[in-house]
Amino acid sequence: MTDIIDKKYFTIGEVAAMIGEATSLVRFWEKEFPVLKPLKTEKGTRKYDAKAIELIKYIHYLVKQKGYTLEGAKDALRKDQYAEGRAGVIAKLNDVKSFLVRLKESI
Asked: Is the full-model pTM beyond 0.85?
């Protein structure tokens, strides 16, 4: 999460690594979720800002962790005016969870 503060834009590979998925899934979600609109360079390279990354993490949470269908996740995003804020909170909670798991394993 602190990486987002250090950089303004991230590549699709970096974003995919953040969520532990393939770049093809991120590209697919771009087509499925109109709210995901990364900047593109003249050569077509995608550049994701912090807002886009938070949305991707929220979509990932809905689809992969909560088991939503794509249509269900789209509906949730449309209905949830606080989706971006929730995405940030969920990302921070996942960071804390990962830290606690590593701490438990080291004991």
From this structure: no
